[in-house]
Amino acid sequence: WNRWCCSPSRPRVLLLCRYMGTLGSQVMCDNIPGLVNKQRQLCRQHPQVMQAIGAGMKDWITECQHQFHSHRWNCNTMTRDHNLFGRLLLRSSREVAFVYAVSSAGVVYTLARACSQGELDSCSCDPSKKGSSRDSRGSFAWGGCSDHVEHAMRFSQTFVDAKERKERDARALMNLHNNRAGRKAVKRFMNLECKCHGVSGSCSVRTCWLAMADFRRTGDHLRKRYNAAVQVAVNQYGTGFTAAHAHFKRPSKNDLVYLEDSPDYCIRDHESGSVGTGGRLCNRTSRGVDGCEVMCCGRGYDTSRVSQTTKCECKFHWCCAVHCRDCHQQVDVYTCKGQR
Ligand SMILES: *[C@@H]1O[C@H](CO)[C@@H](O)[C@H](O)[C@H]1NC(C)=O
Fold first, then answer.
1. Does any ligand 1 atom lie closer than 6 A to the CB of residue 262?
2. 264-314 pLDDT, tens per residue?
3. What totals of helices (H) and strands (E) does the chain contain, helices first?
4. Is the pLDDT of residue 2 over 50?
5. Which listed residue, 65, 93, 263, 288, has the most CB atoms within 10 A of its CB?
6. 283: CA distance to ligand 1 center in Å?
């Protein structure tokens, strides 16, 4: 009912919605599994924000799956499990480090965008971006809407980190570190976007705003951090990390950190949250991680011939249409054999 009645195209029922929203938020917040008390409290205070965060989840999950689509671990989620990632998150692996970072980055991104789009009562554009300022090309006036990333980072920190603040063990420290690395990654990709004014677009006067880049930039960045993630152990005071191996560097604030080696994700293993690679598509000629050799873990693959339809023989007609034929093509696809 919330989506129906709270849509902006129904402004007259909006007030009623707000009222029902407050009642509904108790029900909603009590029914999200896995929240700690502090998070439930924040949820009840900010039901709109929670809905935005919930709606934004599919975006960071999609990004995670994009980054790992050709890997043995492909950021798969368990639709039947009430825990989205199954038992995976119980481990302290590099993959889990990525999931924490990309999800907390996702919360920041979603929130800042919702603020800018005027979807939330509690925030809007960055109020500090007013007056004038300068960049390398000279002075400009702040205008338009700058994404209020600082606000989104603060809320994200309060909300997402609340869970880890209850504990003070190695795993909590790991999560806090990766959450922060994720939040910082969003802030890194803010662009100054400007509009030119002045005589025939001479750009003698500019108005500018700070806008977040596409979430893909954050995803790409965190993927690189995943590759360079540092295995750590907690120091003797339990306050920070030391590198787990003598030849590893100490992690910086932007690095992802993990505690445990990863399973190989080759076979289905409930305990480690691995679904195995049986049935996954692979590339017969690639020597990389998407190649059948690596992807199928030496178990071999099945070949099947499927028919694919593509647009072909496209002709451009003046003006302005393109006409194509449908071409049917037989292509071989390779899928990993399952374990015996
Ligand atoms: C398979 O891998 C080869 C070599 O890396 C690449 O050239 C080719 O485009 C890939 N094929 C598909 C279908 O992705």
1. no
2. 999 998 888 888 999 999 999 999 999 999 999 999 999 999 999 988 899
3. 9, 12
4. no
5. 93
6. 6
Span 66-83, pLDDT tens digits: 999 999 999 988 765 556
Taking the domains of the chain in order of start, what are their residue ranges?
85-269, 281-336
Distance CA 222, CA 19 (A): 40
Q: What's the whole-model pTM score? A: 0.85
Q: Assess whether the C-beta atom of 70 lies below 6 angstroms from ligand 1.
A: no
* Radius of gyration in angstroms for the set of CA atoms belonging to the chain, rounded to a whole number: 24
Is residue 314 a contact partner of residue 322, using CB atoms and an 8 Å limit?
A: yes
Name the E strands within 161-220.
Answer: 190-197, 205-212
DSSP state of 89: G
Alpha carbons 134 and 125: distance in angstroms, whole number: 20
CB of 286 within 6 A of ligand 1: the answer is yes
Cα distance between residue 195 and residue 205, in whole Å? 9
Architecture of domain 281-336: 2-Layer Sandwich (3.30)
Q: Whose CA is nearest to atom 4 of ligand 1?
A: 286
- CA angle at residue 281 from 278 to 285, to 5 degrees? 120
Nearest CA-CA partner of 153 in 177, 120, 186, 189: 186
